[in-house]
Amino acid sequence: MGSTGAGMSAVEVGLLLLFALTAGCCFGANVTYDQRALVIDGRRRVLISGSIHYARSTPDMWPDLIQKSKDGGLDVIETYIFWNLHEAVRGQYDFEGRKDVVKFVKLVAEAGLFVHLRIGPYACAEWNYGGFPLWLHFIPGIEFRTDNEPFKAEMKRFTAKIVDLMKGKKLYASQGGPIILSQIENEYGNVQSDYGSGAEPYVKWAAAMAVSLDTGVPWVMCQQDDAPDPIINTCNGFYCDQFTPNSNKKPKMWTENWSGSFSSFGNAVPYRPAEDLALSVARFYQLGGTFHNYYMYHGGTNFGRSAGGPFITTSYDYDAPIDEYGLLRQPKWGHLKDLHEVIKLCEEAMVATDPQTTSLDSNLEATVYKTESGLCAAFLVNLDMQSDATVKFNGNSFNLPAWSVSILPNCKNVALNTATINSVATISKFVRQPSQEGTIASDAFISGWSWINEPVGISSDNAFTKLGLLEQINTTADRSDYLWYSVSVEINGNESKTVLHIDSLGHMLHVFINGELAGRGIRSNSGHEVSRDVPISLIPGENKIDLLSLTVGLQNYGAYFDTVGTGVTSPVQLKGLQNGSTFDLSSQQWTYQIGLKGEELGLSSGSSSLWVSQSDLPKNQPLIWYKTTFDAPTGSNPVALNFTGLGKGEAWINGQSIGRYWPTKMAPTSGCSDSCNYRPITFPVVGCSKVEM
Ligand code: GAL
């Protein structure tokens, strides 16, 4: 039409606005790579990335988390896709609410950041069953993560589903969107040798399948030394400076730099000092790296039953630069922000040439990126863990604290030393807020409780009977953490004191004799089975033995992790009966109930008529449902619930599960010792552990 300015039609205005929006956002249509870096629209880039798993926070938190990532100097947000979240039932997809990954990717784009989408679809990630849906396990003839047709068919279908979803919304950079990178599989190289002859063809197939989906952006495989071209193999770990890709045509990339670690119930809360984390990042860029990702930048929360296991906690805080609640963890966040600014000052020199490293003395080195056109950036390094050092570089003296890197973006002045923190440390504290009636919220909590007793043993019409002991996951399909095993024993003559011996692969076990709790067993974090000898008294006549076996998050890592069973295996024996004999109950007729009565009744919605509200609230008893109401604190700050005083269970707010709690399985009381400082104690693992109170 050729009209401009005031004469423009509505349609033209719309088109112009659209153009302005896409042009304003920095996404390249063309992402490739060479031996130095990812190349976006013809330009090599030094990129700083951080992991935020969308399902570990709420959509309300996403904009703030993304903004804080941007403010912290990130270019890229990396997330896994969790298959079992989106396809809990085969063929029924769910991308709503916390599962709305499209919305998450769009929000990242709106902030002007890129996305690395790790489709997997195996994730690991301390996520229940590594992200695999349980129904996958029941497909006849299936074997996970190997050259197996039923598995490959499902993996391809879901991977294609995600790629199509993103393509449909034009979210790949090749379409003008933010996704510059995708990952297929996850750390398969770590377990590959266990999968024998099926492993190599599987890796080749996965690579070819991914490439065939035609995303227009590169694919990576992490910890995969034999990643087939054109897939880039990348490094995961606490330090990746010594890593080299499997071809001199691929850039050096780090997909997981562990900013701390995950927590398990009963273990110390992991902590990685900001100085050590900064050193690992600086070392990577010093030695030719151009893409680095913090795993995690915000760890978040394992809501519902999404935690992997066994024993992964509900908190996935990870000691990340942004804490579980979305607050800046200082000085970590600030120190890394400073580091990112300085690395960006070096970007031009870094992408223009290869680094040249000179040894200055033992544990001391200098790396220079220098071009003929006069660009120069330098990294001075002291790898001694005890002693500071002074080095001579370009005619000047530089003091280098132990275990540190100094960065000189102009090869003359030190812009940052990784062991010297300029950010202020802050400690976030929770405060109690008075409720609207003027009472402290936690006091209001004490009153107004109601409860329902969960019956011991079989109470559901859906119970069933089988000869012998059943493996738990095959029985429950993970529909619940709980499986009741129930058997009756006839005792002739007098009361008898005996011992019930139980072997279980289960994560946890409660033993009830004639309705009374007689003993408990918990599998150790190092993975041993539960084996218990429980002293019991049996009465003349019929006796009921009810075993409640619990899972606390399904395993997510290791070769064949998907086939590791749980539950009461065998034997289950009565030992030392009056006549000194042993009676094996293992192959008796057992009755099974999947899940609790309260789960069947949907008590988590809170709306049942069975709730009892009397002043004699039962305490210190197993198997009770509790309920209360409280006013939400005002304002928009994060709210935390303190579960101290409760045993183990799961909590819901307004019908939504916020995860498992288990305050009685506390972290050990030994924390950081005096010798615990920013230098790693055992190389190369997390510097030290602290105990969270
Ligand atoms: C890696 C894995 C991640 C996560 C991490 C530990 O091996 O790729 O998904 O599990 O370990 O937090």
In brief:
This protein has 693 residues and is α+β, with helices and mostly antiparallel strands. The structure holds beta-D-galactopyranose. Beta-D-galactopyranose (GAL) binds at residues 123-126, 186-187, 236, 256, 262.
Textual characterization of the structure:
The structure is a single chain. The protein is an alpha+beta fold. It is 18% helix and 27% strand. The protein is built from 11 helices and 34 strands. The protein has an 8-stranded parallel β-barrel, surrounded by 4 helices. Strands 21-30-22-27-24-25 form a 6-stranded antiparallel β-sheet. Strands 13-14-15-18-19 form a 5-stranded antiparallel β-sheet, with helices on one face. α6 links the parallel β7 and β8. α5 packs parallel to α6 and α7 packs parallel to α8. The longest helix has 21 residues. It binds beta-D-galactopyranose. The site of beta-D-galactopyranose (GAL) has 9 residues, from loops.
